[in-house]
Design brief:
The chain is an alpha/beta fold. The chain has a domain of about 230 residues: HAD superfamily/HAD-like (Rossmann fold, 3-Layer(aba) Sandwich). The protein has 14 helices and 7 strands. β3, α8 and β4 form a beta-alpha-beta unit. The longest helix is centred in the last third of the chain and has 27 residues. InterPro entries: HAD-like_sf (IPR036412), HAD-SF_hydro_IA (IPR006439), HAD_2 (IPR041492), HAD_sf (IPR023214), Pyr-5-nucltdase (IPR010237).
Amino acid sequence: MADKDPVSPSGDSRLSSSNMSNTSDDPKPSSDDKLSGFSNPESARSSPQSPDMEFDDRCHKVQEPKFDCLLFDLDDTLYPLSSGIAGHVKKNIEDYMVEKLGIDESKIENLGNLLYKNYGTTMAGLRAIGYSFDYDEYHAFVHGRLPYDNIKPDPVLKHILKNLRIRKLIFTNGDMVHAVRALKRLGLEDCFEGIICFETLNPPCPPQGDQEPEIFDIAGHFARSGTADGLPKTPVLCKPNVDAMEEALRIANVNPHKAIFFDDSVRNIQAGKQIGLHTVLVGKSQRVKGADHALESIHNIREALPELWEEAEKAKEDVLYAERVAMETSVTA
C-alpha cells in the first residue's frame, strides 16, 4: 500500500483511500424501504407480479444487504498481541515522555496508566494535561523504532478478506505511516478501501510558544478527589471517544447500523456499540457487555459471522436471477 491520495466518499479529504469511487453521498435506503409503495406488505407478497415488477423487486433486494461495511482496528486485531509490538510501543512512549518532555522517570508508570485510562491514549492524555509537541515527531519516535519484522505475512487472513465482497476500512488510532507499514508486513495492503487514522481526525498540533506550559497534576487530582470529575479535556480525537468515532463514520460515509466493528479493546467496542455499530471483540473467547461477538483470532470471522458469506452467495444468486429475468423480459417484450 503506497502513500494514498486523500479522498473520501463524502468528499472529505481526511480519509486516506485507495478506491472510494464506488460510494455516493446519497444515503442508502433502509431495510424498511424494500416494500415502500405497498399499503399492505402481505398483499404485496401474495399479489402476482409482472416480469418488470419482479425484476425491479429482485434488483432492489440485491442492494439491501444487512451489512455494507466492515471496520477493522489494526494493532493487536489484524495481527496478534503475541507479536510483541504493543510492548515496544509502551516502552517507546515512556522513553518519549522522559527524553522529550522531561517527565521524571519515577512518575512515568503511574502517569501513563492514568492518562491511558482516562483519555483513551497516552498522547491524548498528555495533550489534555498541558504538554505540547509535534504529532509527527511523536509518532516517528514511538513507531519508527518498532520491530516490524515481528509482524508476519498472513495469507490466510488475506484470503478471508478477499472473499468478503463488502466495503472494508481500517480504523486505527495510529498514524498513517505506521498503518501502511503494518499492513504491508501483513500482506494486506490491497484488502481495504481506505484508512481512518490519527491524521483523519486531528489537525497538526499548534506550535508551542516561548512560555512554559502549565501542566495539570492529574496524579494529585486523583489523590485528592478519587474521581475523574474536573479533568481537563483533550484536543485529540481518538477511540474510544464517542464524538471521535461518530466523526470518523461521518467522514467515511458509514452508516453505523449497517457496519460491523472489529477491535481488541473492550472500551472501543463498548463505545462502538453506543453509537450503533455491530461489534466484534477480537483476541478474547468470552463476550463482554457491548460486544455482539467475541473471537479468539481474527481468523475466526467466518465461524462467528457466517451471514456475511451467506449474504455474498445470496447476492450472487440474485444477480444471476435478475439477469435471467431481464433477458426473458426483453425476449417477450
